[in-house]
Structure formats: C-alpha cells, structure tokens
Amino acid sequence: MVGYILCVMLGLIVGAVIMGCARGGRDEKPLDYEYWKKVGNEITNHNKNYQK
Question: Which of 27, 51, 47 is CA-nearest to residue 39?
C-alpha cells in the first residue's frame, strides 16, 4: 500500500514538473507550489481515510 502511495505521489510530482516546465517558458512561476501542496495534502488525507 505504501508503495502505491509513493508511486502516485511520484507520478504527480513528475506531472507537475513537466507542466511547470511547459508553462515556465512564459513569465509565470514554473510551479504553483501552494496549489500542489494543497493537492498533496488532500491526497494524503484521502489515503488516511481510505486505510481506516
């Protein structure tokens, strides 16, 4: 189960980095850190609830 969570998180991080690089060519922040942190927290909370 932990491996699955790590896999999902890694996939999200890679996707976020790719999106950030794609958008980073313009004058935006490459990554909206607060947004991704919020998404990560929601996923973590969801997984905790799922394991109960």
Answer: 47
The rounded average pLDDT for each run of 10 residues, N- to C-terminus, in the chain (52 residues) is 84 80 56 74 74 59
Closest CA to 15 of 40, 46, 48: 40
How far is Cα 16 from Cα 38, in angstroms, rounded to an integer? 13
Please give the model's pTM, rounded to 2 decimal places. Answer: 0.37
DSSP secondary structure string, 1-52? -HHHHHHHHHHHHHHHHHHHHHHTTSSS-S--HHHHHHHHHHHHHHHHHHH-
